Amino acid sequence: MKKKILACLLILFPILSLGIAKADTEKTKYVIASDSSFAPFVFQDSSNQYTGIDMDLIKAIAEDQGFEIEITNPGFDAAINAVQSGQADGIIAGMSVTDARKETFDFSDSYYTANTILGVKESSTISSYEDLNGKTVGVKNGTASQTFLTENQSKYGYKIKTFSDAASMYDSLNTGSIDAVMDDEPVIKYSISQGQKLKTPIAGTPIGETAFAVKKGSNPELLEKFNKGLANLKANGEFQKILDKYLASDSTTTSSTADETTIWGLLKNNYRQLLSGLGITLALALVSFAIAIVIGIIFGMFSVSPYKPLRLIAEIFVDVIRGIPLMILAAFIFWGIPNFIESLTGQQSPINDFVAGTIALSLNSAAYIAEIVRGGIKAVPVGQMEASRSLGISYGKTMRKIVLPQATKLMLPNFVNQFVIALKDTTIVSAIGLVELFQTGKIIIARNYQSFKMYAILAVFYLVIITLLTRLAKRLEKRIQ
Ligand code: GLN
């Protein structure tokens, strides 16, 4: 067993380290991670651009202090992970300063003070925490609201349901699968001001100051620049302007002005974003499948080799990869390994979500392809190999000239099948914040709550693309046969 584990680490390590190049020490640009939807702090406007207090603030500070930023919006939980694993230098996401977080983050000066508050449907009869007994409260994973709910759960006897993004949480409240949500007060109040049919029957509870954060001990100069910039913006009135823009009662920054209630309106307003998501999905599927075929064939050939060590290596590879859920594999590669490397070397890993997603998908498909290759070769009667070898023809030549041509024909339909599975599996890696087609849809829903129509659009997108690609593959298959 120990040998097996050692061998699989030996196999995995070179593959994983491919994506990890040396990080440069001198920083000219900072990667800032944020939430995907946390209006009025961060959200997409009707032209699909990220705006909000946090976005305006970090941009103004970067300009004031003369540094460049690249913003990613993977969602709160994912943004926290990104900073912890060194994928991002800082996080600005309406983040509350809590004692627990001070253990792992360094915080800037505060720029806001927020409460957490309970939101229920307008028609709900819940009017106190006691009324929550036996009911289900939704909350975003990793948030201060979640901590509050967990701490008070035994007192009030509610069930907690955790969500990775705001869209699915508010959707669940609208459809009645949860009875209440817990979120930052400005966020719920803002969505009410935007026409959401919610109310807040109980007064909010303080959860701390809102601030910008970096991983504890890293990027101290960034924190310093943030503080200086914030002070400057406060002094020159710029900061107040940003707050007023999003919080004033007559604020006109509606998150969605265009008609997004019809399928046509949704498509018209979001087609660019959807096509770019589709592009990422296709790139992920095609690149990872191409890599998977190479790795899969190598391990597949190993598994029918006359040499036992090769067979053993192939067996371990297939067992390990098939035994780990794809989502965990992706999270491990994107967050786990960089976190580990950073803690050892202090170097930030430049491996991005696309590379991590591609590696995870490649490894996953490769394990299944190895099995397809093994099955295909095994399906060719052994007599053929024996007959050929007894005529004095070498193993390699027999493989190439006699066994493989027949085996390939048997494998082809399975390859097509595996490709379709790989394409569908791209949705799973959206968990690491990669904005492929599925994540694109979720971000759009976070803005307009049109989950029925949006998911229908996504389903049709996948259906069309998979049907087209399968047809194409079938045609290729026929030609080869
Ligand atoms: N203020 C809350 C927290 O820090 C929620 C932040 C968010 O969801 N973006 O936990």
TrEMBL record:
One of its GO terms (biological process) is amino acid transport. Its main location: membrane. GO terms for molecular function: ligand-gated monoatomic ion channel activity. Gene3D superfamilies: MetI-like, Periplasmic binding protein-like II. It comes from the Bacteria. SMART domains: PBPb, PBPe. SUPFAM superfamilies: MetI-like (SSF161098), Periplasmic binding protein-like II (SSF53850). CDD domains: PBP2_GlnP (cd13619), TM_PBP2 (cd06261). Residues 278-473 form the ABC transmembrane type-1 domain. The chain crosses the membrane at residues 278-304, 316-337, 454-473. Residues 1-23 form the signal peptide. It is found in: Cell membrane. Keywords: Cell membrane, Membrane, Signal, Transmembrane, Transmembrane helix, Transport. It is a multi-pass membrane protein. GO terms for cellular component: ATP-binding cassette (ABC) transporter complex. NCBIfam families: HEQRo_perm_3TM. Belongs to the binding-protein-dependent transport system permease family. PANTHER family: ABC TRANSPORTER MEMBRANE SPANNING PERMEASE-GLUTAMINE TRANSPORT, MEMBRANE COMPONENT OF AMINO ACID ABC TRANSPORTER. This is ABC transporter, permease protein. It comes from Streptococcus infantis ATCC 700779.
